[in-house]
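Phospholipid-transporting ATPase
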Amino acid sequence: MLCYVCAMCGRLRTAIRPACVGEENWVGNRTVHIGHKEPPSCAEAYMPQDYPDNRIVSSKYTFWNFIPKNLFEQFRRIANFYFLVIFLIQLIIDTPTSPITSGLPLFFVITVTAIKQGYEDWLRHKADCSLNECPVDVVEQGKVVRTQSHKLRVGDIVMVREDETFPCDLILLSSSRYDGTCFVTTTSLDGESSHKTYYAVPDTMAFRTEQEVDSLHATIECEQPQPDLYKFVGRVDIYKDKQEPVVRTLGAENLLLRGATLKNTGHIYAVAVYTGMETKMALNYQSKSQKRSAVEKSMNAFLVVYLCILISKAVINTVLKYAWQWSPDRDEPWYNHRTEIERQRHVVIRAFTDFLAFMVLFNYIIPVSMYVTVEMQKFLGSYFIAWDEEMFDEELGQGAQVNTSDLNEELGQVEYVFTDKTGTLTENNMEFIECCVDGNVYIPHAICNGQILSAASSIDMIDSSPGGYRRDLFFRALCLCHTVQVKEEETVESIKRGIHQGKSTSFYISSSPDEVALVEGMKRLGYTYLRLKDNYMEILNKDDEIERFELLHVLNFDSVRRRMSVIVRSSSGEYLLFCKGADSSIFPLVVSGKVEQVKARVEQNAVEGLRTLCVAYRRLSESEYLEASHRLTEAKIALQDREQRLAQTYDIIEREFVLLGATAVEDRLQEKAADTIESLHKAGMKVWVLTGDKMETAAATCYASKLFRRSTQILELTKKRTEEQSLHDVLFDLNRTVLRQRSISGYGLSLDCLDFGLIIDGATLSGVLKPNQDSAGHGNYREIFLEICRNCSAVLCCRMAPLQKAQIVKLIKSSKEHPITLAIGDGANDVSMILEAHVGIGIMGKEGRQAARNSDYAIPKFKHLKKMLLVHGHYYYIRIAELVQYFFYKNVCFIFPQFLYQFFCGFSQQPLYDTAYLTLYNISFTSLPILLYSLVEQHVTMETLKREPSLYRDIAKNALLRWPAFLYWTCLGVFDAVIFFFGAYFLFDNTTFTSNGQMFGNWTFGTLVFTVLVFTVTLKLALDTHHWTWINHFVIWGSLLFYVIFSLLWGGIIWPFLNYQRMYYVFMQMLSSGPAWLSIILLITVSLLPDVIKKVLCRAVCPTASENAQVRSSHRRKVGL
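Predicted C-alpha cells:
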C-alpha cells in the first residue's frame, strides 16, 4: 500500500513539474533508467520500455528476400516490364521468333543488375557486421564487462577509452579529466577535425571508478530520436537519499554521438540514450531524393516515340496481312494450312494474336541492352573524375569524389551556378587584420616609417593611445566571448614561454576559424587567453599578470540572432555581459558608445572585403544577473520548445548595450577562383553568389573574383532601397532599366550590352517570394524578379538564410526555361541548396564535410570546378549523347529490313534473321565498340576545352539530343536499312548467283543483310571516332572478327542441342561467292556515303565551334606549339 501511495505521489509530482518549467506537452518523450535501476520507491513508478538494440542495418536485402525483392524492384522499371511481357507473349502464343531471343537478353540484363546490386549489398552486410561485432566495455555490478556493440541497450553505462569511437549516442556522466570535460572529433559525422568540448553532468562529474558510477540512481527524460546532429533536449533527475530529485538540464553539449572519437581524454563513463537505428548517425542514413538527368528524360521520350513506331508497324502489318488474305486463293497457301481449331477461332482473336506476333517480331527496335550499357558507361566513367590527378589536392591529401554516377552528363549541361562565398570562393583561413575601439584603430605588427614593428613595439604604441579603459575592456571581451579551447598539451607556463620567445604557433582549437583568428589577434595585441579551468577563464594581460573571470553563462551563437554572449564575474565581483556579432544584430541593441565612428570603420572594412564583427558590453547588477540566470536555467530545463524559450530569453537579456568597437578579419580568395568564374562566364553560365555576409563584404569579394567587372552596372534590390520606395516601384524601375538596355542592343546576346549585376538581400527576397501580394494587385513579383535576373550576367544574394538559398535555386529551376542548375558550397548551411539543385557539388572545406557528404560530387577546391564542368562534363555529355542516338540508329537499321521483308513473305511473320543473330546483335556484336567509345572518346583535347571555355556553349540546352538530331539519326537508320534490304534484294534477282549455279535461300539472304548491317553500324562508329588508341582498334576490329568467327562456327558445325540446322553452311556458302563479297563492300560504301558527305559539307560550309577548335588544335600540333 505504501508503495502504491509513493507511486501516486510520483505521478502527481510528474504532472506538476512540467507546469513549473514550461513542459506543458510531453507527448513522445522517452525515459531512460541509468543502469536499468529502479528509481527509489517515492519516485515515479518504474515502467520498463522497449527500445531497439544497438544493431546497425544499412543493407537492403537478406538471404531469403533477395531474389523476390530484387526482381520486384527491377521489374518496376517500365523497360524491363515491357520486355517481360514480350517474353511471356512468346511463351503463350505461337510467335515467329523463339522466346530465347527476348528471354536471353532480358535474363542477361536482370542477372547483371542483380549481381551488381547483390555485391553492393554484400559489402553493406560486411560493414554492418564489423560495426555490430565491435567490442564495447559496459559497467555491470561495479565491474567493466566486455561485450559486442549490437548487444548494447538503452540505459547501459558504457566506458570509452581514448581514441575509441562511441558505439551509440551517449550522455556524458564523468571523465578522467577533473573538470568533467572531454574532447571529441566528429570527422566521420561532419568532417570537422577540430577538437570539440563536451561536458559531464555536474553532479556526476566527480565519479572516478566503476563502483561510483554503478551506484548512481537517476533517470533521463529526453526527446525521441531526431536526425539533427546539433540539437538535443533533455534533463536528468538524480535521486539522493530519498530526497527530492536534483534536476539538471541536458543539451547538445552533453550528448556524445555515435561515430565520433574520444581525443585527449583518458576515458569516460556515459549512459546510452539512443541505440542502433535510432542514433542520430543512423537517422541521417536516409537516402536523398533521386535526381534524373536531362539525357535520361530524352531517352524516355525517344522510347515513347519508338514504342509508337513499334505499335504502328504491328498494326500496319496486321491490317495488310488480312487485306492480302482477303482473296480466297490466298487465304490458305499450300505451305501454310491452318488447323481446324484455327479455322473456328474468331477473326478478332486471330487478328489480336497476329498483332501480338508482329509486336514480338519488331520489338527489337527498343533496345533492352541500352539500359545496361548506359549504366555501365556512367559507373565506369565516374572513375575518370576520381582518377584525375589534376583534381587532387596535396594539402588535403584527397581528390575528387563521386557520390552518384547518375548525373555525369548533367555536368555538361549547367546553365546556372549557385555558389557560397566563405570557404568556397574564399579560403576560410581567417587572419586578424585590425580592430577599432571608439574610433581608434589598432593593427598588430603595425608599420611605422616603412618598418614592421614587433609585437612588443605594437603594444607600446597601444599603451600610449587614448581611451585605455575602454580599449582594455574591448580586448578582454574578445578574450572571454568565445568557445575556443587551448590544446591539451599546452600549459600556462608553456604558453607564457612561447609568447616571450615570440613563437607564432597557435595554441588554440575551435570549430570556428573566425574565433581562433580573433583570439590570436588579441594575443598579438598583448592579451592572451590561457585556459578555462573549473569554470574560470584565465587571461594573461599586457603587464604579464593573470586575470581570472568566472564563466557563469554562455548564450550560444545561432544563425538567426547572428551573435553570441557570455556572462562573467570579475575578481572584484562585478557582473559583465559581453556580446559580439554581426553589425546588423548589434547596432539595434546599442544605447551608447561611439556608434558613428565604429559604423564608418565597419563600412570601410566591408568595402575592402574584410569580415567584420562588432563588440558590446553591459554591466549587470546582482539582481539583474539573478533574474537572467533564473530565466536561462528555466529555459534550458524545458523539454518542449526549448529553442524558442532560449531565443526569447536571449532577446530579453541582450539589450541596452554599450558599444566598444569592431574587428576586421580577412578571408583570402581561393587560388584561381577568379579564373574559374571568368571561364564559367565564357562558357555561357550565369554565376550567382549566395552568402550570409553583409552586402559590402560580399560585393568586394565579387569584384575580386571577377564576378562583377568594373564595367558592370550594379542594380540594387535591398532593404535600404525598399525603405525609400515600395518593393513594387523598385522592381518595376529595375525591370524598365534592363528592358531599355535590351531594346537598345537589339535583343542581342552580347554580354557587353547586357552586363548588369544584381545585388539582393534576404529581407527583400522574402518580400519577392511572398505568395500573397499586397492588396493593390501589383502583379507577380516573382516573374518580374526573374525577368530582371535573366538580363543580369551575375547576381549576388547577401544576408541569406540556408532555406532562402534553396528557395532561390528552386525558383530558377521552376522558371519557364527550366534551366539546369548547379549548387556548390562547403558548409552545413549549403546542404539545402545542394540537395535542391540538379547537380550538387560539395567543397571539402574547413566548415566540415556535411556539404561533401550530401552532394553528388565533392572536390577539394573551387578551382577544380572548371575542369569538372568544361572538360569532364563536356566529354560525358558528348559520349552519352552519341551512345543514345547510336543505339536507336543501329536498332532501326536492324529491324526496318525485317519490316520490309514482310511485304515479300505474305505477312507471314517469317523472321529475316536467324535466332542467334537476333539474340546476340545487341549483346555481343555491336555492344563493346559503343561502350568503349562512350568511355574514351575525345572529340577535342582537354587542353583545348580548358583554353576555350566557349566550346561549352555548343552542347548547351541538350543540343545533341534535341528532336532534329533524333530525327536525323532515325532517318539515317531508315536510309541504311533500305539500302541493306533492297540492295541485297536486287542482287539476289540473279538466279545464278553462286559459282555452281545454286540459288540462295531466304536464310542466306538474311545473313547477307545482317553481315552488311553489322559492318556498317560498326564502321559508322569508327568514322565518328576522333580519339584513337590501341584499345579502340582492338575492340572495333575485334568485334567484327568475332562476328565472322562466330558465324563460321555457328554455320560450320552441326550442333547436337539444336532441333534445327537451318544455318548449316549458310555463311560459308555466302562467302564462297564473289558477287556476295562485292555486294557487301558496295552496300557498306553506299550506306556510309551520305553521312560522310553531310559531315564534309557541314564542316566546309558552316563548321561548329568544336570543329574549328579541332582545326586549330591540329595546326598547333603541326607547328609544334
